[in-house]
Specification:
Strands 1-2-3-4-5-7-10-11 form an 8-stranded parallel beta barrel, surrounded by 6 helices. Strands 6-8-9 form a 3-stranded mixed beta sheet, with no helix packed on it. With 333 residues, the protein is an alpha/beta fold. The protein contains 8 helices and 11 strands. It is globular. Helix content is 27%, strand content 16%.
Length: 333
């Protein structure tokens, strides 16, 4: 009910305020491997001050999906500095990506004026479904081993700003454990972090989306989607190469149970937006389309395909740019 009320409020606000906003390590296959976002590897210089162009108005009016129709949206981890051309390209793309993750120094560099300007510009983008792009702040968790107080401090870096405004729509928790832990202790730690994000954002803006993502990089234990202690709105349940995605690297589902194995998890995903697949080393545009179509068939609500390679495929954009990906994703559903 809480989220439904907030969603209705957000729709009303959007209708009134329609103007755009101003201006690795190996991918995870288990607990002993970190996801590609475990360390920011960008070679770009630190951001410079200066005006960032706002997102353009969409050239073709977006057509929202009918209620209850599942689709696929593009969500991009962008581990670069605020002035990088990757973020400039994302800001200028229409239809826009649905989610963009910003990563200032693994979440611990100041989320200062240049970052806030970039986030605001990205949030002005219009997606294929007629919504605004959601920007998330990156926070690493070391499989639940990082001190929770330090994690909350990283969260505060994005949510407790000097100007008292929110410049992000939520938090992307990376290097997340895939297992529940003894007595569900690890699951409960992430559930508490989600509540901290929600409460912090509500204190600033009760209408804020407070979107939380967990990235284990592989199928997640179904306890994480328990309605009473759910740890995130969206889970990255695949992060690896195209070769692995189209062969033996897909384990058979987005969620698992130690007794019964892997399954799609659709019964835990009423609106078709709970799962996100990240695929790198995608060779060409045709393979990009195959990746997106496969992600949709495997139950993902969000996906991203790039030809970039390890050690960090998230610090540069795909050679085919973003429009071919966002426009193709809009046809799935």
């Amino acid at each position: 009910m809480r989220r439904a009320v907030k969603a209705l409020y957000a729709i009303l606000v959007t209708a009134v305020l329609a103007a755009p906003a101003p201006a690795v390590t190996a991918s995870a296959r288990g607990e002993d491997q970190a996801t590609a976002g475990d360390a920011q590897r960008s070679d770009r210089s630190r951001p410079q001050t200066g005006r960032i162009a706002p997102a353009p108005a969409p050239s073709v009016p977006p057509v929202p999906r009918a209620p209850g129709v599942r689709g696929l949206e593009i969500a991009v981890p962008a581990y670069v500095w605020a002035n990088d051309h990757m973020l400039s390209d994302l800001t200028a793309t229409g239809p826009a990506a649905s989610i963009v993750v910003l990563n200032p120094g693994n979440g611990d560099a100041p989320f200062d004026a240049p970052w806030q300007a970039r986030a605001d510009a990205l949030r002005g983008g219009t997606t294929a479904t007629g919504e605004r792009t959601k920007v998330l702040g990156y926070v690493h968790t070391d499989h639940g081993n990082r001190d929770p107080a330090a994690v909350r401090t990283s969260v505060d870096n994005y949510l407790k700003t000097r100007d008292g405004r929110l410049h992000v729509d939520g938090i992307f928790f990376d290097v997340v454990s895939r297992d529940c832990g003894p007595g569900n202790a690890t699951r409960d730690l992430y559930a508490d972090l989600r509540r901290y994000v929600q409460d912090s954002m509500d204190a600033v803006d009760p209408a804020a989306p407070d979107l939380v993502v967990n990235n284990p990089g592989t199928a997640i234990a179904d306890c994480y989607l328990d309605p009473a202690r759910r740890t995130a709105d969206v889970f990255v349940t695949y992060e690896d190469t195209y070769a692995a995605y189209t062969a033996g690297g897909w384990l058979g589902g987005n969620v698992f149970d130690h007794r019964s194995g892997y399954r799609a998890g659709s019964e835990l995903d009423s609106d078709g937006t709970a799962f996100w697949h990240l695929v790198h080393e995608v060779p060409d545009v045709q393979a990009m389309q195959t990746t997106l179509r496969t992600a949709f068939e495997r139950g993902a609500g969000y996906a991203y395909a790039t030809g970039a390679r390890m050690p960090n495929p998230w610090n540069t954009g795909p050679s085919w740019k973003y429009h071919p990906q966002t426009s193709y994703a809009a046809t799935l559903g």
